[in-house]
Amino acid sequence: MKVLGLTGGIGMGKSTAARCFLHRGVRVVDTDDLARELVEPGQQALEEIRLSFGAGVLDGEGRLIRAALARLVFQDDAARGRLEGILHPRIRSRWLELLGVWRGEGASHACVVIPLLFETGAEKDLDEVVCVACTERTQAVRLAARGWSVEQVRGRVGAQLPLVDKIARSRHVLWNEGPLEVLGAQVGRVLGRIQ
């Protein structure tokens, strides 16, 4: 089974590209989805987050208040490091386990969406890395449409490896500035190269 890692800057279209891979029969797991599962009430990771960051990051029902946690970790590198220390090993363990299941089922291709792929050293567990990219202007427009402030965008972008470095370290680049059909065609070409 060929295992692709899909990365790129925030708001550049990783989820859209992942759907394009999925539509072509590739098994896909998104580490952001795994992270959300890990912080559900009753999960050990959520308890560790509460102990590390205080009860103020939880609502009255014991659910994570993502905005409160984000305010803490995207302004403080040490806080972000603590959160990553809680989540990243668990996330990696889950996607590696899922890849094992898919191998056992005879899947030919799998794609793991990892925003912090290079930052976490995940490339060593992958056959190829694909980076989704667009211009900074397009990225800003997309994130503004999500309701993000300029400050929020700066914090998130600043917490990641610069896009130019992600592109340089990736085997393939999907340029996501045009219509969905164009992105889908690029995904098809990438899959054609790694058969």
Task: Provide the descriptors you would attach to this structure in a database record.
195 residues; alpha/beta; Rossmann fold; five-stranded parallel beta sheet; 9 helices
Overview of this protein structure:
With 195 residues, this protein is an alpha/beta fold. It has one domain (2-193): P-loop containing nucleotide triphosphate hydrolases (Rossmann fold), CATH 3.40.50. The protein has helices at 14-23, 31-38, 44-53, 66-73, 77-104, 136-145, 150-158, 163-169, 180-193, and strands spanning 2-8, 27-30, 109-113, 128-133, 172-175. Strands 2-3-1-4-5 form a five-stranded parallel sheet, with helices on both faces. Helix 3 (44-53) packs antiparallel against helix 5 (77-104). The longest helix is centred in the middle third of the chain and has 28 residues, at 77-104. The radius of gyration is 17 Å and the shape is globular. The mean pLDDT is 93.
Task: Show the helix and strand layout.
Elements: E1 2-8, H1 14-23, E2 27-30, H2 31-38, H3 44-53, H4 66-73, H5 77-104, E3 109-113, E4 128-133, H6 136-145, H7 150-158, H8 163-169, E5 172-175, H9 180-193
Parallel strand pairs: 1-3, 1-4, 2-3, 4-5
Helix pairs in contact: 1-9, 2-5, 3-5
The CATH topology corresponds to Rossmann fold
Q: What strand order characterises the main sheet? A: 2-3-1-4-5
Number of strands: 5
Task: Quickly name the level 1 CATH class.
Answer: Alpha Beta
